[in-house]
Structure formats: structure tokens, C-alpha cells
Design goal:
The protein contains six helices and eleven strands. It is α+β, with helices and mostly antiparallel strands.
């Protein structure tokens, strides 16, 4: 089973935008890989349409989007017409075809011992294929969220997490509960008080010694970062 910090498994696959090798496709960007148990399913139809509408927000964060379903690419293309008609936007990002279930198994969404293909399988058979993986430019997994079939995913939350991940990967910081860009952040525990004084000469709020709160980096980065 994949864990945060693991290297995202590389693979080659056919997509609605041609054949890709995943690591090469990610390149120096961040990436969101989100999976679907079956084409022509109602909740996923709404999700794919919404992702198409907010793709510019991911672009702005240097983050690529790619979907995956266990059905073949030609089925994805037919589904795309339904998505456009019902949601007002068709997928404007690649969708991976995984009819042999190889990638779903590789990413731990289906048992590795499972035999057969997508033929004859129902959404209920594939209900564990409802994951969101965020992958960094280093090709490591930064986030895994698994959703039930009956609950639509919150992709605004995925954007919020990417904002946090990108900020904290650049600075030795952490973000508190319900954090949004621009709000105060926490100095990481790995930074000593001595080092923190160099970076934050104005000091910090500390309701407890281990809870050191500073403004989020703005136009002027803290010294030494």
C-alpha cells in the first residue's frame, strides 16, 4: 500500500491525449492523479466536470491534472460528451485507460492478486478506486485521500492542500487547522529557536514553546530562506 513519502509508481499508459510515461509527464510540475471506479457513473461525472472548470487554478499552481478509470480510452471519450452536456465542461486534461487494472493494482486501489480485466466489473466491484494522489516534482506522494462512492470529492480542499504543500516545501513551516493562503503559519519543529530568531528577527507568538506562530511569507521572504 502506498504511503506519503513513497515514490509514486511509474507506468506507461494510453490516455485520451495519447500515450504517456507518468514520471516523464509530471516533469518538474506537481500533479494530481484522481481515480474513478467506472465510466458513466453519476458522482464521478460531476467531479470530472468540476475539475475541468477549475483547471486554471491548478495551472496557476504549476500542477497537472490526470484522471484514471478502469475502462478503456474510447469509453472515456464517449463519457466526455455526457460530462460536457450535463456539467457544462468536458475534461480538458488526460484520462488514463486502465482496462487491465494494472495501474489500479500498482497504486494499491485494487488487490494485486485480482485477476481479469474491467469487462463485467461493476462500480461496486471497483469502489476502492476512489483516490486522490498529489505527487510532487520529486515524484514522491505528498497526499492520499480515499473517498467512498457516494460522496463527491472536494477539489477546493485539494487546491488548499497544494497551497500548503508548496509553501511548506519551500519554507520550514507548517500550516494550522483550516489554514488558507495568507493566514498565519507555524514554524516547523525541526527549526531551533536560535535558527528561528535569524529567520524571524521580529519574533513570533508562542502560546506554548512548541507552538511558534508567524505571519505567512509575503513579498519579502524571511532572512536565510
Amino acid at each position: 500500500m502506498l504511503k506519503i513519502g513513497d515514490v509514486a509508481p511509474d507506468f506507461e499508459a494510453d490516455t485520451t491525449e495519447g500515450r504517456i510515461r507518468f514520471h516523464e509527464w509530471v516533469g518538474n510540475s506537481w500533479a494530481v492523479l484522481f481515480s474513478h471506479p467506472k465510466d458513466f457513473t453519476p458522482v464521478c461525472t460531476t467531479e470530472l466536470g468540476y475539475m475541468a472548470k477549475i483547471k486554471p487554478e491548478f495551472d496557476r499552481r504549476n500542477t497537472k491534472i490526470i484522471g484514471i478509470s478502469v475502462d478503456p480510452v474510447d469509453s472515456h471519450k464517449r463519457w466526455s460528451n455526457d460530462i460536457k452536456e450535463t456539467q457544462g465542461a468536458a475534461p480538458n486534461y488526460p484520462m488514463i485507460g486502465d482496462p487491465e487494472l494494472k495501474i489500479s493494482k500498482l497504486y494499491g486501489m485494487l488487490p494485486a492478486t485480482l485477476e481479469g480485466s474491467c469487462e463485467g466489473r461493476t462500480p461496486a466491484d471497483n469502489q476502492t478506486v476512489r483516490n486522490v494522489f498529489v505527487v510532487g516534482p520529486d515524484k514522491k506522494v505528498k497526499l492520499i485521500i480515499v473517498y467512498p462512492m457516494t460522496t463527491g470529492r472536494n477539489f477546493d480542499e485539494v487546491l488548499r492542500v497544494i497551497d500548503s504543500l508548496q509553501l511548506t516545501s519551500k519554507h520550514q513551516l507548517a500550516t494550522p487547522v483550516n489554514w488558507k493562503p495568507g493566514e498565519d503559519v507555524i514554524i516547523a519543529g525541526s527549526v531551533s529557536d536560535e535558527e528561528a530568531r535569524k529567520r524571524y528577527p521580529a519574533g513570533w507568538k508562542a502560546p506554548r514553546p512548541y507552538l511558534r506562530i508567524v505571519p505567512a511569507p509575503g513579498g519579502v521572504e524571511p532572512a536565510g530562506v
